[in-house]
Design a protein that fits this description.
This protein has 16 helices and two strands. It is mainly alpha-helical and about 325 residues long. The two termini are about 30 Å apart.
Length: about 325
């Protein structure tokens, strides 16, 4: 055994062990009660419903229930992946998820940095407050605003026609090529201000002396952002990126459902809409459950892969 290993073993042996007494439990009883409530809540609403996954492996009939429906193994998954509609839905979900992740993630960082550069404290508060207000709007209101602004008689078409950029108004919601950019724009407008809050908090935690040292070295604003701000918030960026990678397949439901129509159905349907259509509308709960399981497994795989890549490169990671 090496000297280093012996030293570590001796150090571990010399560390005092923490003993939990009834006195300590009574002193922390409020925290323990609240912790127990949260655990019970998690078990009831997050883990017990996982028993419903059994439907994906059954020819589920509501009248027979989970215990008496015929077991069919992976037949429902075979039917799922043999469906050309589901494969198209996977493409749509991945595409919109990646576009939304890239646009909202980058814009939140850029906005936080730009907001931090505002010298006026009152001006910064006003801009920040205005920027995160859209987060509290429901998607029904947001899609309503989009419909009004982008309709044939909306302000966007009127401005483009007046500037002679268009000869006649465009029906943005009738062309498939506009749908994904519209979804990305709506997500950026709604969530950028809210997502930037955590980056602003990370920026405020950076030691001010680093900026002072950079100023003494003759660094300008861009140099400070590049060599002080970005390295300072890099751990926060990595953790949030890893967490958001798992949400790539959570491309959304409300905005696609509300903005979608028969003309853009080929690019607007996501896995969540597919689950709603087959699991609820068509009453095929087994197919809907199988699609949901696929989505969950892919999300877990993406998080594990991203975490391993971060670990291999020596970056911050989740586990």
């Amino acid at each position: 055994m090496s000297l280093t290993a012996k030293a570590k073993k001796q150090r571990r042996g010399s560390e005092p062990k923490t003993k939990i007494s009834w006195k300590e439990i009574k002193r922390q009883k409020v925290l323990l009660i609240w912790s127990a409530i949260i655990v019970v809540y998690g078990v009831i609403f997050y883990y017990l419903p996982l028993g419903g996954w059994l439907m994906a492996f059954q020819d589920y009939k509501p009248r027979d229930g989970l215990l008496h429906s015929a077991f069919v193994g992976l037949d429902k998954f075979k039917v799922l992946f043999a469906d050309a509609t589901f494969l198209r839905v996977i493409r749509n979900t991945l595409a919109m998820g990646i576009i939304n992740l890239a646009s909202t993630f980058i814009m939140a960082i850029v906005f936080a940095i730009l907001l931090n550069e505002i010298k006026s404290r009152s001006g910064k508060k006003v801009v920040q407050t205005i920027s995160y207000l859209p987060h509290f709007l429901s998607w029904i209101i947001v899609t309503g605003i989009l419909h009004d602004a982008l309709s044939g008689t909306g302000i966007i078409n009127e401005v483009l026609v007046k500037l002679n950029l268009l000869e006649q108004p465009i029906d943005f919601f009738a062309h498939t090529e506009y749908f994904w950019p519209l979804v990305a724009f709506a997500n950026v407008w709604k969530e950028t201000g809210w997502n930037a809050i955590i980056y602003l908090a990370a920026i405020t935690a950076i030691d001010p002396s680093l900026y002072e040292a950079a100023s003494i070295d003759g660094a300008g604003r861009w140099a400070k952002i590049k060599h002080v701000t970005l390295p300072g918030i890099k751990p926060t960026i990595m953790i949030l990126l890893l967490m958001n990678v798992g949400n790539v397949l959570n491309a959304g439901f409300e905005i696609q459902y509300l903005l979608g129509n028969g003309l853009v159905q080929s690019v607007s349907q996501t896995i969540d809409i597919y689950v709603l259509k087959w699991g609820i509308s068509q009453g095929d709960f087994a197919i809907g459950t199988a699609a949901g399981i696929f989505k969950s497994l892919v999300s877990i795989i993406l998080i594990v892969i991203a975490n391993q890549i971060a670990k291999h490169n020596g970056e911050e990671r989740l586990f």
